[in-house]
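Structure tokens please, single chain.
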Amino acid sequence: MEFKKAYVIAEAGCNHMGQMGIAKDLIETAAHYCKADAIKFQKRCNKELLTEEQYKAPHPNPANSYGETYGAHREALEFSQEQHAQLKTWCEAAGITYSTSVWDLTSAQEIAAIKPEFIKIPSACNNNKEMLSWLCENYSGEIQVSVGMTTREEEKALVELFAQKGRNSDLVVFACTSGYPVPYHDVCLLEIMRLRESYGSQVKAVGFSGHHLGIAVDIAAYVLGAELIERHYTHNKAWKGTDHGASLEPDEVHRLVKDLSSVFEALVHKDEEILDIEKIQRDKLKYRKS
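Here you go.
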């Protein structure tokens, strides 16, 4: 297996709590301290995505709610297209790639208009054929898709749709288990190998989107063939919101990037039978017949 340096995506999502100042701090920290390759936010048109009943219902966990209803909660965490353009500008200044997960067609159209390098489709809407088709036909960048809570049949249909549109070479498929947080026995890392075996020759790459705790699993995901590693990212796990507890804080993202770089450096064959570093030890320690 040939290894490339891991591409690390710090998924801020809506961990900015609806505040542009926090979002900017997340960008600066991810770029300058964590050394991540990209930071990813999210965009939703809540009136399109939610039914009227869902919009007006209370948040299922009131302690995490930013509004009296689930719709009001989601709106409080939402940035406009203009604000996303500002996030992209801040990312460019900081030297980190901007991206966003889009949850509906309107959001996909708004984000495509600001021309990010890649757009992410969450597991929750990877079967939205209208949105996927529009992106294939109107957006020229890379399209990343997670396949959590997705059947094998749905997964196959997804890849076939991109192939039919002539866009499978721009498709990155992410192994994922949809839970917050995910216990280790449900991470199912070997799904990375299955995706590579099933679709590796048909798609641009296979990645791993993790919702577990810690960073050890991500190292294993990379060694199993995940070229991109995506983790939720926050400044403080104790902040109010659903995703913070399953996110990494800056020190963890920094360590993850550093460890992945070290593992990449180590994933080589010996270029000669006895390395230079071994020759001194061989002269001192190697058994010799008397």
